[in-house]
Amino acid sequence: STVEQAGSSGGWLPAGTLPKDGIASWPQLAMDASGTLYLLYSISINENRGLYIMTSNNSGETWSQPNRVFDAVSAGWGLVDHPTLAVTPDGVLHAAWVKGSPDGSASPQGIYYASSTDGGLTWSDSLKVAEPGHDWPRLVSFNRQLQLFYSKLADHGVWQRWVTYNGNTEDPQGWGTPVNLPGWSNISAPFGVAVSGDSGSAEDPAGALHLVGVDIPTGSLRYSAWEGERWSQTETYDPQYPVMGVIYQTAAQTDFAVSAATRLAGGRLGIVWKLNSINQEA
User: Fold this and answer.
1) Which residue among 180, 205, 223 closes a domain?
2) Which structural domain range is residue 119 located in?
3) How many CA atoms are closer than 13 Å to the CA of 276, on its beta-carbon side?
4) Rounded distance between C-alpha atoms, residue 55 and residue 147, angstroms
5) Secondary structure class of 251 (helix, strand, coil)
6) Which InterPro entries does the entry link to (predicted)?
7) 31, 96, 138, 178 — which has fewest CB within 10 A?
8) How would you write the pLDDT of the chain (282 residues) with one tens digit per residue?
């Protein structure tokens, strides 16, 4: 569905099942400047485990056969998880994902990255961009940079690093030093990242990069925006869970996270988040 039609049930195509083979999880959708859609997903376990991508040139009516991005079996991985996908203005596809422990009980074993310059047909060798103990990568294209955000499980902090478009994204030296964002600890993962505008646009000449997450102790939403040289002071929004009839519980008893953040018409920022309490769900 297009943005103009999304508010109408008649504007959506009938639901279909993609992909046909394997137990897929964590689908990630991106679109390039020509309107081609890219669907990245993981098959986390079993004999076909790995990352796969499908494309559509007709707004999702039909899709290509899956193409393998990363073969976790050949790499000797027991589990691959939590992929993210971005397309930069030069048409290059960028993917990042997590090497997990086979039984899911141990800490993640690192975050890896690869790129494709031919629409997802072939991919570069994987590059480790975050050490063990980090999870939930988020890739976005902003201000001629590929930005990578991820979560550190030890303190639930948010980290950031980036590489310029004209840099060598497959070279570890091309990536900036990881930065722990100030004021962003005790944040539930995943968190949301959104980009609005671009350089030279009438609405938002400098563009804007938005970060939003759920505070673990309180359940409040936290928000910051990139101001060109630094992040803005963190803002806090109380969703008033009791008013919605929700009993908020702390992290030990609840599963909550920001699922999506996107810029809407009129300069508004849309946020979707999940809160599963013991007694009720929002």
Assistant:
1) 180
2) 18-180
3) 8
4) 23
5) helix
6) Sialidase_sf
7) 31
8) 444 455 555 667 677 777 666 688 999 999 999 999 999 999 998 889 999 999 999 988 899 999 999 999 999 999 999 999 999 999 999 999 999 986 666 789 999 999 999 999 999 999 999 999 999 999 999 988 999 999 999 999 999 999 987 767 778 778 999 999 999 999 988 999 988 865 434 445 557 899 999 888 888 889 999 887 889 999 998 877 665 566 665 544 345 677 667 766 667 788 887 766 544 444
Edge to edge, the sheet with strand 145-152 lists: 134-142, 145-152, 157-164, 179-180
User: Rounded CA gap, 63 and 85, in Å?
Assistant: 17
| Domain presence at residue 10 | no
Helix (H), strand (E) at residue 99: strand 93-100
Residue 150: inside a domain: yes
Q: What is the DSSP string of 172-217?
A: GGGSPPPEE-TT--SB-SS-EEEEE--TT-SS-TT-EEEEEEEBTT
**Cβ-proximal residues to 268 (8 Å cutoff; 6+ apart), any chain:** none
- CATH at residue 58: 2.120.10.10
- Asked if residue 108 has a cis previous peptide bond (ω within 30° of 0), the answer is no
The answer to whether 246 and 277 are in contact (CB under 8 A) is yes
Q: Are 255 and 276 in contact (CB under 8 A)?
A: yes
